[in-house]
Amino acid sequence: MILSLEQLHCYYGLSHVLRGVTLNVSEGEIVSILGRNGAGKSTTIQAIMGLVKAQSGSINIAGTTINGLPPHDICRRGVGWVPQGRRIFPHLTVEENLRVATYKDSKGRQLALDRAQTLFPILRERRNVKASGLSGGEQQMLAIARALIGSPRILLLDEPSEGLSPPAIREVMKVVREISVQGTAVLLAEQNIRAALASAHRHYLMDKGEVPVVMTTEEIQKREDLLVSYLGVAARMPVELGASRRAGHPLAENTPEPSRTSTEAGRSA
Fold it and tell me: Has residue 133 been placed in a domain?
């Protein structure tokens, strides 16, 4: 297990925003957190990164508890983060954006840069272009490539489809699946149901800081009532089911069986 959250509780002042969130992600797996605005998706990602303090519960990376560690230490333990809104450096070139993510004394700097630019050929082509001159999709690819520089074991993506055109979303999600096939786990927080269902193996439906439902993509397709209930939308759309499995995904034969949990299990005492 690469990532495990157990009964995580977080507050903003007196507001109880995460109420006993429990989730896990295995090596090479893509998992989504689905929910409306304010459901707690981004807070969950930020808590993992140490940007929001967990009042109780545990956050584990590869079996090691990281509660209380600063973000830079969490990154060094194998966690990559692509924040909502991308947060690239607009006045730096593509290559400069990637280089700031490398350590000054890193022997593998050029290898890391080459890997990122191989995964995103458009970035190699536009390496001398200022980031502000990139399209929204290219900026998202740059943000993902920057997060991959440290060769993380798990990549956290916060609303990766936000503000992108449908073709750009498809391209970004295609790369996310490729990253997963190469062995990097992915946890993405999304409102875009089409993107999440086309990419992730399992889905945690979040509502008011709790996770009442955990389901596979195939199961969600049969329970549109749940998406309507928790997200206000239906999943009746063409979805590339099992796209990463067809590409030889390491979890093709042994993806963990999901279970539906009670909302009461996540409530604080």
Answer: no
Give 191-242 pLDDT, tens digit per residue.
888 889 889 999 999 999 999 889 998 888 788 787 777 777 654 444 443 4
198: nearest Cα among 247, 129, 136? 247
pLDDT at 30: 96
> In terms of DSSP bridges, do strands 185-190 and 64-65 run parallel, antiparallel, or are they unpaired?
unpaired
Asked if residue 167 belongs to a domain, the reply is yes
Global pTM? 0.82
Full domain range(s) for residue 177? 3-78+152-266
d(CA 244, CA 133): 32
The total number of structural domains in the chain stands at 1
pLDDT tens by residue, 71-119? 999 998 999 999 888 789 899 999 888 888 776 555 566 777 777 778 8
Residue type, 229: S
List strand residue ranges (DSSP E) for 62-114, in order.
64-65, 79-82
Q: What is the DSSP letter of 250?
A: T
Quick check: is 225 in a domain? yes
* Dihedral in degrees, nearest 10, Cα atoms 196, 8, 42, 15: 140
* Strands across the sheet containing 30-34: 79-82, 154-158, 185-190, 30-34, 202-207, 210-216
